[in-house]
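Write out the 3D structure for:
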Amino acid sequence: MKRTTPRIVFVSAVMLALACPAGATVWNVSTVGELDYAFQNLQAGDEVIIAAGTYNLSAYYLYINVSDVIVRGATGNADDVILQGPGMNVNQASTEALNVNADDATIMDLTIKEFYHHGIHIRGENDVDRTLVHNVKTINCGERHIKGSSDTSSTTKICDDTVLEFVVMEQTKTLTSHTDNNYIGGIDCMGMKNFTIRDCVGINIQGATGGGRGMMMIYMGIDGVTVERCKAYGCDRGICLGNPSGTGHAYMAPWCVVGGIVRNNFVTRGINIALEICDTKDLNVYYNSIYSEDASYFRTVHIWGPNTTNLHLAYNIIRGQIYENSTGDWTYTGNITGSTPQADWFTDWTVADLHLTENATAAIDAASPLPEVTEDYDQQPRGTAPDVGGDESNPPEGVTVSFDLASSNGAESVTPVNLSVSLSEAADEVVTVDYAVTGGTAQGGGVDYTLNPDTLTFQVGQTTKNIPITIVDDGDPEDDETIEVTLSNPVNAMLGSIAVHTYTIIDNDSPVSLFADDFESGNFSAGGWTASGAASVSRQAEYEGTYGAKLGGIASITKALSTSGYADVHVKCYWKAQGLDSGEYLYCEWSDNGGQNWYELGKTQASSWGQADFTCPSGAANNPNFEFRFRTNANKSNEYGCVDNVEIIGTPQ
């Protein structure tokens, strides 16, 4: 939680990298100069670990020119490490963030934003193979968020086994100052073999006048592609395979894309096409959910090209029309199209959350199993009667692996913290599941906590395992911070209902609220109060809102509350009195022994609202028997006190 600059060791005014086995080097960098130096001196097998921070890459170009290089953020949280350019509409160096010119490059756990041309450029003209981009955010890239260029005249300079996964691409600005202010897209690649795009998101990728290329364009020269579990909304186009402008690549001609599958994707159409398929061969489009607000839009799905061959669309939900603008051949099986799908079929179509609701009766259990699609968008099993579209609303039962709780918290001083993960039942074979930090406001890498990606293994008969997190107690007052941990890739089990756990580190150096009640429930029981005498929750006793507590005559309201683990306990409220005689008061009192003895904190006769903040004596700290109360000692029921917005705060010990 305390932000400290990572330790940098200098030798002869340059950073000393940490030597790895087999001659490789780990470069731990925390300034843009160190980052540039590491890239200028990369050797095969090196790893560049970038500390949390923002790195202004104006005038710095980062090239991966040697093989087997890893570039990653240090914390595992993409939000923590930002590579920033001059601006998506500023044509000056550097116009691209990362250029990949060699095999086996891995880029992960960082954010790339504000570059005039491309965020990541995979240079297929150099025959680059096995690029992996994982857990990366790209924001406001003026031409392509991820570009895969190619030598279109070559049939041998092809990128093999490229994987783009868990990439979030977003545009928050209007494109200006480009030669063509519609020439913008998310993923745009050509010259690829065995290309995989999965679990990626495209948000608002738009040209200035609606002519942008959209979330992804798998352009041409593609031999085998898998597009799965991706989401797009607000984009001029959604998912495009091939391009109506023509094939234009020597590899795989006369087709743009040969072989592959598009499955379990969620796409909400923007201004233009949601799914475009041009000059493909042997392509399967299975179990996708595609939504157009205007169900009459003529090319929600666009099939184009004279060379389209053996295209199969099966069990897709397509709200909108299919435009058959081709002389090739294709078949349909079990799709639900046109205006039949309704908005209330889906959780929230506006952000492409196309999970099915109970209203989607025409889609639920209405498909037939296909061997190419055994899971849905959430990697839940399909079963023998799958739903149409990308979501399986009622997956079949089996062994599931899940967090026990969706969230938990603890004081900063408590370490280690164990997040419990359980199987729904004992399995008759070994079950494994991966876990990793995928978000949160806390920093990893020993700053706020330490948790490295790993795998849990459940031996036969075991049902519970723990994920241990080491928490760092830094002694600095600050806001509470969160760690988001996600389960993935289960083997011999399915992900259960809680695949993400959010752990909140409660700062033990700042006060926290232990109890609060504004009486808007309209009763005392919701807040756990014990009332006596003429005490009521009344519309005539509110400081703000609708209700407050009213104590007439001789009355009281009492609250028992353990303060174990907390010091410096305060009672806060708004209060006033009405018509009290001399010697009559509205009191605030506390007890250290469960109400056997009471001690005054304060009293009032004031007829106008006042804010009170009472500091309890030390006996109120760390006390499981702490109680507090408000009471009046008036002799008439029309003499009363009012209390509202009660809060107890304490500082974690």
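DSSP finds one helix and 55 strands in the chain.
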